[in-house]
Write a structure and sequence with these properties.
Strands 1-2 form a two-stranded antiparallel ribbon. By secondary structure, the chain is mainly alpha-helical. The longest helix is centred in the last third of the chain and has 27 residues. 50% of the residues are buried.
Length: 485
Amino acid sequence: MHIRSIIRIVGILVALFSVTMLAPALVAYIYRDGAGLDFFSAFVICLVLGLVLWFPNRTHHKDLRAKEGFLIVVLFWTVLGSVGAIPFLLSELPDMTVAEAFFESFSGLTTTGATVISGLDTLPKAILFYRQMLQWLGGMGIIVLAVAILPILGIGGMQLFRAEIPGPVKDNKVAPRIAETAKVLWYIYLVLTIACALLLWLAGMNMFDAICHSFSTIAIGGFSPYDASVGHFNSPVINLIIVVFLIVAGVNFSLHFAAFSNRGMQLSVYRLDPELKVFIGVQLVLTFICMSMLLAHQVYSDPWQALDQALFQSVSIATTAGFSTTGFAEWPLFLPVLLMFASCIGGCAGSTGGGIKVVRIMLLNLQGMRELKRLIHPRAVYRIKLGNKALADRVVEAVWGFFAAYALVFVLCMLALLATGMDELTAFTAVVATLNNLGPGLGEVAANFGTTTDGAKWIMVLSMLFGRLEIFTLLVLFTPAFWRS
């Protein structure tokens, strides 16, 4: 294990991350909200920390193996999540404990969107912008951005990229040159962010709100500068714009890459992708069920209002964004529970969404159907196909392994939360909200996580990390084989 090379790389990443503190400092200067000094101080602290880690190890250049890549990714998220808490600790408003500051930072960076802060409407603009920016940076993985520029600094990127990109198969390259791939992915990400912000601005948001909501929409994060979230604007047009971009961000970015990286637009890649079809189908079915139930229970008398609320909440929760336009936890209990389970499916593999991922659910279903057929015809040979492509058994085994690890982590986190004194509904939905990087839960965490104990907050921070790193990337560090040379 090349420890000094790893420390060198982490130092570079922390130093790069420190530069992002200047953006909210600029916002503080523009709005004169008094938070500029806090962010400039955070910038200096992070920069010094990065240099302290980098300078003594600056001459250690080693090729990264797979295990170093996994360790760097885990260190990257834990270290950046930790230094990301510094502005919250320095700020007088909001006044946060250490556990609350770390919770808010990790929630932003992992795009979970759960918050311990109440009274968002009165906070300094710089703090609000920083929360949204954390989600945007974490949305597709800051590490992919780092991979795009690290070759300039003499750091190989493929191991980092494979450890970070979500999905059931991590051996497939999107393009031969990883740096070029990362750049194109971030170009797409940036263009989507700008387009979303412009449309939200044209729909009636001011520029600050449009940029903030664009950050958390494309990142599928769910933070908002308002306690009422998107419901603050009470606009069906804004709701629809966010829904469209949540769906776009919930699609595998490899499809966006394939559609726009070549000459001309290749929209057929969307039409032919089986995962995308199921993803869209899930959103439509959930919207229909929610709208039908809302009308049947007379929650809304106007069908158009029911459609607006059902569509927004279904897509928001199912893609693991966690925005809200209404207190959906107060709907007939069947609906919020249904949506919480839907968040376990999440977005497509390779998207900014959380959850198990649609393609894994598809493969689990196909494997289940194959076992049923084998009961009828024990000697028959059945191959699992995704679209027209037959998949190796190794892929199916990996999916089952992931699902088993997901279930184990889920149960352990829930038991740990119950041990802190949480009630059953709150503990269950808190794990759903954090492990799937969703945000809102039910019970005591329906709107805010501030009432939970410090111990519960640390458990949920770990759950967020497991969800963001797709279980295995973090879990592999707990195996003895990983640490053997």
